[in-house]
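Field: COMPLEX_INPUT
Field: COMPONENT_COUNT = two
Field: RESIDUE_TOTAL = 546
Field: MODE = joint
Values follow.
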Amino acid sequence: MPEQRTVTLNMGPQHPSTHGVLRVVVELDGERVVKATPVIGYLHTGIEKTMESKLYYQALVCTDRMDYLAPMSNNLGYCLAVEKLMDIEVPEKVQWARVCLAELTRIKSHLVWLGTHSIDLGAMSMLLYTFRDRESIIDVYEACGGQRMMTSYIRIGGLAHELPVDFDKKVRRAVKQVNEGLADYENLLTNNEIFINRTRNVAVISAEDAIAWSLSGPMLRGSGVKHDLRKANPYSGYENFDFEIAYGEKGDAYDRYLLRLKEIRQSLRIINQALDGMPEGPYRARVPGVVLPPKEDVLYKMESMIFHFKIITEGFKAPVGSVYQAIESPKGEFGFLITGDGSNRPRRVRVRPPSFINLASLPRLVEGGMFSDVVCAIGSIDIVLGEVDR
Amino acid sequence: MTRDELKEHILKKYDGLLTPLETGVFDLMCEVKPANLTKVARMLYDDEQLKFDFLNNIAGVDTGEQFEVVYSLSSISNNLRLDFKLVLSYDQAVIDSVKDIWTAADWHEREIWELYGIDINNHDNLKRFLLPDDWDQGYPMRKDWDAPDFVRMPEL
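Field: COMPLEX_OUTPUT
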């Protein structure tokens, strides 16, 4: 019998550091990882198939449930894709409000990442601080959409309803809270020797490899590639805002940590600009038969009521053709390929889930490294299994 | 490079390989014959003026009459976007893998193989990952597949 040198170890699917139900089969030679195979699919619910049998409006609620830590970004991506397909132009105020909400979502998602990633590495108190600050952002969600997580607030052609009266006040409070919190995080982690030892030169990926693996978001920029869809291919009026792309140099887990903190700062900058310059105007585009008319009109005007009824019961018919629209979500490039077939339901909705593509590079990140770094690598990718499996 | 310049470039350099389709206001969409896939992919990757080095997405589509596989590409250095598609008949649903050119194609192609039953040539990692290992109920993303307990809403 040949001598067996390696040990195969199963990690997950129920493992606290895998951020959901991810399973990794690791082959070990001593403490070194020889081979790592991510096993996914435990949360596969066929969301793409479900969306094919829904009206365009109904399919929106499926998007919240993919990356449940960044619902507004998902809504935004889907709505932009459908708006591109239907050639709808939204009012300026909607664009600004969407940018504001999408950036709040980015902060919220990064805060959860920061808390859980630090817990993985043994910094137990971080989660309490980040969840404290995340609460103020969830307050904004609750005021807008009535829900704390699955908001579905950004709708095709605009928003679900008018921004709440105290929107400005609530967002400014959240900005202040996060701004103060950032000082705490940096004090606790940035110069923390244990944290640096656990993350420096761990899960390194070069810029060429990052592009070959189609990594996006912080995973790509952490390796020094200056590619951000908000600048490269602006959507929803991002060209009106003054901000910088954060990027790293070495492409290790510590760079990605610094980068996400920088992104939070840039997001705060964008939110402040959006609040200061928020234009007046309607909260929904006026496209009869496609975009729901404002609720006030539905109650008093005959035509609006008829359109409302028709859109709710039979939806609208989209043209034949396919569009690909991607946005820069907190995790990376979140894209939708929507194919219309002339009926009121999409022929195909393909999601380009950033976590899914980023997770594919996990073997590349951990093979050859120490076993204890697998946890750090998984954490630094920032995956949400709801989106990976769909 | 604008959309029209890109179209011009493709017509000039990729004559017969990439055929731009009439898509109205939508993004530029081209068609590629399945036999030419790897050749076109390699050319698009190597082309100095385009340099499509980033594979955004590969999507399978079942139109009810045939399969389509839509590739979305980007160029990070030149900031360009291009979509092209392959049309496959149901009885000849085979494509070549582009994993050698864009490593990221690995999982995309696996997903298409698993959910649509489109076979992938030269792919060394075709294993189930989204569906259960013992799945034997066909290819769920095909249009003729309905879940056993699925009730379609009546047309209005």
